[in-house]
Design brief:
single chain; alpha/beta; Rossmann fold; 2 domains; six-stranded mixed beta sheet; four-stranded antiparallel beta sheet; 32% helix; globular
């Protein structure tokens, strides 16, 4: 488990990025930090692997304060996936994925074999192994980034807006694939996004942050939708948007879900609900 204990971060220029955050990140689940720019979500994530150190408070992993850990050793034990993948342009796909195992002393042959296995896991054709990042699509690059983050088989995976730079269709595919990976691997994931729909799609726990780095609300997507803490939360999650308001309509094919703009959103599975009166 990851635990933030009364964490505050004030940068040298006086910017207060995080203010008194206390939070538990449960193991083997996905926790999503969501908020606008300046809400401290990326700063919180980077405190876990000591890319940023808190001004006060502490972050513990399984009861051990990360401040007592060697930063390099700590970072190699935690997977990290960033926006635009952050791949090394002069290295092949396989070599990019194998970066951390090679640094940890794994033989080139074994690390390459592990890279190929991870390419299978994230849905990449092994024929891409000897290509360079510039020869890949955006979605392929992000899959390589995820594979590299998993290469050392970490218990914790940090993901900083990893799907923000790809088009909506690819983004939806990557979100679906990440959910499948999490179901299979059971990692402890912290995922950062500014997109509330992405947060609700991926998060077992969603932490909604205000500007200045305070927690506005945390809970499951269903809990937040059912009972927003205040007007800020209601506005942020778009509770009054047409896309969040639905009705049911009976059709010859079954029960159709219609959104607030009278657009069909899909059909209920057999036996789920009934048409609105």
């Amino acid at each position: 488990m990851i635990e933030f204990k009364d964490v505050t971060k004030v940068f040298p220029d006086g910017t207060r990025a995080v203010s008194g955050v206390s939070l538990q990140v449960p193991p083997h689940r996905t926790t999503v930090f969501v908020g606008t720019s300046g809400s401290g979500k990326t700063t919180l994530l980077r405190m876990v692997n000591r890319m940023v150190d808190p001004t006060s408070g502490s972050i513990e992993i399984d009861g051990v304060d990360v401040a007592t850990r060697n930063p390099v050793t700590l970072r190699r034990s935690i997977g990290y996936v960033m926006q635009n993948s952050g791949l090394l342009p002069h290295r092949t796909v396989a070599d990019n994925i194998a970066t951390v195992p090679r640094l940890e002393g794994t033989s080139r042959r074994d690390a390459h074999g592990r890279a190929l296995e991870l390419m299978d896991l994230v849905g990449l054709d092994r024929g891409l192994a000897e290509r360079y990042p510039a020869q890949l699509s955006g979605g392929q690059q992000q899959r390589v980034g995820v594979a590299r983050g998993l290469a050392a088989d970490p218990n914790i995976l940090l993901m900083d807006e990893p799907f923000g730079a790809v088009d909506p269709l690819v983004r939806a595919d990557l979100q679906h694939e990440l959910r499948q990976l999490q179901d299979r691997l059971g990692k402890t994931i912290i995922f950062v996004t500014h997109d509330i729909d992405e947060a609700f799609t991926l998060g077992h726990q969603v932490v909604l942050l205000r500007t200045g780095g305070t927690i506005a609300q945390r809970g499951t997507p269903a809990e937040i939708l059912a009972d927003p803490a205040d007007q800020f939360v209601a506005d942020f999650i778009g509770l009054n948007r047409a896309q969040r308001r639905f009705r049911l309509e009976t059709t010859p094919r079954g029960t159709m879900v219609i959104d607030g703009e009278d657009r069909p959103a899909g059909y209920l599975a057999d036996g789920e609900g009934s048409a609105a009166p």
